[in-house]
Design goal:
11 helices; 329 residues; 53% helix; globular; mainly alpha; single chain
């Protein structure tokens, strides 16, 4: 199928999938389910398996993820030569799988851990378990040959996170035109806000000093400094007082912070995280609808469906632990 024909076909299919998805206001339905079996019936056409709740909760998440990957992979396969950045979206999941493998090996596990099933969209050789050097051979992670000491595991995970972000950063630079700018804006702001939330949690919850916080930031240049596009906003908040709301009134993301109340005010990173998630979903929706029949629109679809997986996970956890999840869309 030629590229224009593939884009038109895929966009029509993607619209159909979104119409049945639990994104936006439809996500509320996930939290109306009274049991895991009811949630299963809402999500899938197959009968709910008769298994313990702990197993059913895992099966719901795994099946939802598998469907998401299958749908997205099916879209990409319609192109004779798909844009590389479309397939590169799998990279972040592959890195998460590799981190799970490293964790299992560090802990002395005998069996391969449960991983996200990426089908053919992975470069790792899982059949070579437990030999890390063979699992990563010939891949972009070939540098990771030896199982790190337990106290070095977090350093390796950080290196993998940086590798994933830099890979995606390089990938989206290939997207041209107005839609390319929209993709880059969404990608950058999402990561900027993740950096901000992470930095504020380290400062507020763990009382970590400024230099240590900087060493935990994600970045796309040579180091996490004030010139890095993902770090520049973090450097603007590290010296702010999290208990003085007046210091945040002119901040770029002031609308994301928790409002002042009659009780003593303290900045809550979870509020910024929630509002950042909402804004990312809005940008993904605009990307999909404003740039139809483009490869960039599929990135918007991907992000919306990724958000749906997060909502499904929240609904599952809410039902398992009898906690009502409160979300705004």
């Amino acid at each position: 199928m030629d590229k224009d024909g593939a884009r038109a076909f895929v966009y029509a299919k993607a619209c159909g999938v979104l119409g049945k998805s639990f994104t936006g206001a439809r996500a509320d339905k996930l939290f109306e389910a009274k049991s895991l079996s009811e949630l299963w019936t809402l999500l899938f056409s197959e009968p709910c398996p008769m298994v313990p709740e702990a197993i059913l909760s895992q099966q719901i998440e795994e099946k939802a993820f598998s469907r998401f990957i299958s749908q997205y992979s099916g879209f990409i396969d319609q192109f004779d030569r798909p844009d590389s950045y479309l397939r590169d979206q799998f990279f972040i999941f592959e890195v998460e799988n590799l981190k799970e493998i490293v964790d299992a090996l560090c802990s002395g596990e005998q069996k391969l851990p449960v991983l996200m099933d990426l089908g053919k969209n992975t470069t790792l050789h899982y059949d070579q378990w437990p030999h890390l050097d063979k699992i990563t051979a010939g891949t972009e992670y070939a540098w990771l040959k030896e199982v790190p000491d337990l106290h070095k595991k977090m350093d390796v995970e950080y290196m993998l996170d940086i590798q994933a972000v830099k890979h995606l950063w390089k990938s989206i630079q290939k997207i041209s035109g107005e839609e390319g700018n929209a993709v880059k804006n969404m990608f950058v702001e999402e990561l900027v806000l993740q950096n901000i939330v992470w930095a504020l949690r380290l400062k507020i919850n763990f009382n970590m000093d400024k230099d240590d916080i900087i060493n935990h930031l994600i970045y796309v240049t040579d180091k996490p400094g004030p010139q890095d596009p993902l770090c520049v906003q973090v450097f603007k908040v590290l010296d702010k007082d999290p208990e003085n709301i007046s210091e945040w009134e002119n901040w770029t993301y002031k609308d994301y912070i928790n409002p002042k109340t009659d009780v003593i005010w303290r900045l809550e990173p979870s509020w910024i995280e929630k509002n950042a998630r909402i804004e990312t979903n809005k940008k993904a929706s605009r990307l999909f609808h404003c740039y139809p029949v483009t490869s960039a629109a599929l990135i918007g679809w991907f992000k919306m469906k990724q958000a749906e997986l997060g909502y499904i996970r929240m609904a599952v956890e809410g039902l398992r632990f009898n906690e009502k999840s409160l979300l705004e869309y």
